[in-house]
Amino acid sequence: MVTVGALSHIARWAARHAQCASVLEVGSKDYNGSVRYVIEPWGPRSYIGVDIAGGEGVDRVCRAEDLEEEFGTSSFDLVVAAELIEHTREWRQVVSVLKHLVRPDGVLAVTTRSKGFPLHGYPHDYWRYELSDFERIFADMEVLRLEPDQGAPGVCLTARKPRAFEEVELSGIALHSVVLNRRVRDLDGVEGGLRWRLGTRKAQLEDLVASYHASAHKTLHYLRTARGG
Fold this sequence. Notes:
- By secondary structure, this protein is of the alpha/beta class.
- 32% of the residues lie in helices and 24% in strands.
- The chain folds into two domains: 4-186, Vaccinia Virus protein VP39 (Rossmann fold), CATH 3.40.50.150; 192-229.
- It contains six helices and ten strands.
- It starts with a helix and ends with a helix.
- Mean pLDDT is 87; it is low at 207-223.
């Protein structure tokens, strides 16, 4: 689910690096919008979209965790992961793979959701990231642009991989779990348990209530506008 803010960030800061470049989009299935449409006009040399399931926008079916084995290290000039890493349980492994796929002097673009964005499982939803988390997670990259999503709680990053890349250690970083509603380092022994199931239901209900209020607000606004006309 690509937000307008994420799409805007990719268009302004990442797409320009696609010109005559090899591009890999991770999590490319088009659910309700795709970054492909703002990148391909720049004329990349090649464009491969991968996802865990086939569908529109998917050229290759592959788990994010297996991409380095599939394509090899330092294989792409531009790697884009829009709205992916909140859905990956083993986020450290996936972030590491994304970094390894980028060639030295290549560019990595990542967008994801922050605390306050509702549960949205495609098929799962685990984490929420803040700007301060990205500053630590991508401390081994040359940040070209790091900013909050302008339209919804989220974080957007475009960064360059340095030639002398030394990967930062991520094991000590705890992220906000959208289900548990607190920061944790991992979900070992938690996922699937009673607390997890209750947290999932609570998050789903909160999302339903928020959607109801938004719908009611739009309806009230429409009625006031129509009455005023």
